[in-house]
Design goal:
By secondary structure, this protein is mainly alpha-helical. Helices cover 77% and strands 0% of the residues.
Length: 288
């Protein structure tokens, strides 16, 4: 495999930890992201990513772990969006825009404060675009624990959430608490975005949330199979992205590797494009 993978890749502890974190987050993002796409809440996911950015930057400025800031910031943003737009579903986009604007302003402030601290060199890059190879083993355990909690919660509310996502009026008529489900789901999405930020950064975290599920939905209609395909796409993007980033260190005379976040997002986009082409070709053949 030396023609494909540079020697020493899997013997590097930082790479093994990074791949583990990335795979876990990719699976959780696929599960939550599938509902995000079905519910048409991609804009809300993007807003939560920017809120997570402000939380991660604020946490770093105060000397705490960026992961804690990512998750807590996204949760606060999710609560704010639901509080502002909870009365009317049509107001939710307005609420999302208001929270997004406030979070962007806070991010600018916290990132400015970080730049004033000479000992924080590289922190801005880590917060914005992630640093998968610098994730520690204790952080991996925290990510794993939060991911398990999200999966368990989604398993509990999955069926009524899917029903409400496809037809909120019909779900409400059957006695499903649509408002409460929306709040629970938004909180789960917030945690997922916060976890994804540690992999590819807050700016790009919605790529794992939206890209693989959107690609999987173009290839199938069965929920279970679509979920498996979305998780496979996400894990593949992270795994191949890590390999490409590691190998790229030897591509240039300057020995500078491509950012993992760039490689992962590029592969997510490629998966979506290929899935769209396959869908188009399949549709043409069936119609012919």
């Amino acid at each position: 495999m030396h023609w494909l993978v540079e020697p020493g890749l899997w013997s590097n502890a930082a790479v093994r930890t990074g791949v583990g974190v990335g795979a876990v987050v990719a699976i959780v993002s696929a599960m939550v992201g599938l509902f995000t796409v079905i519910r048409g809440q991609s804009f809300a996911g993007h807003a939560l990513a920017d809120v997570a950015l402000s939380g991660g930057a604020g946490s770093n400025a105060l000397g705490f772990s960026p992961l804690a800031g990512f998750v807590v910031g996204a949760l606060v943003g999710a609560g704010a969006m639901e509080a502002v737009g909870v009365e009317r579903v049509r107001q939710r986009d307005v609420a999302t825009g208001v929270v997004l604007g406030a979070a962007t302003g806070l991010s600018a402030l916290f990132l400015y404060l970080i730049t004033l601290n000479s000992s924080s060199t590289g922190s801005t890059q880590l917060i914005l675009f992630g640093s998968l190879f610098s994730v520690s083993a204790p952080t991996f355990l925290v990510v794993l624990a939060l991911s398990v909690l999200v999966c368990l919660a989604l398993a509990v509310i999955g069926r009524p959430l899917l029903f409400a996502s496809l037809s909120s009026d019909a779900a409400a008529a059957r006695g499903v608490s649509v408002t409460r489900l929306a709040l629970c789901y938004t909180l789960l999405m917030a945690v997922t975005v916060g976890l994804s930020a540690i992999v590819i950064g807050a700016v790009l975290s919605t790529a794992l949330l939206i890209g693989p599920p959107a690609a999987a939905l173009r290839l199938g209609r069965r929920m279970s199979m679509t979920l498996v395909v979305a998780a496979t796409f996400g894990v593949a993007a992270v795994l191949v992205g890590v390999v490409v980033s590691y190998d790229s260190y030897y591509w240039w005379p300057s020995h500078r590797a491509l950012p993992v976040s760039f490689c992962v997002v590029a592969l997510v986009v490629a998966e979506f494009v290929v899935a769209s082409l396959v869908r188009r070709l399949t549709t043409r053949k069936s119609s012919a």
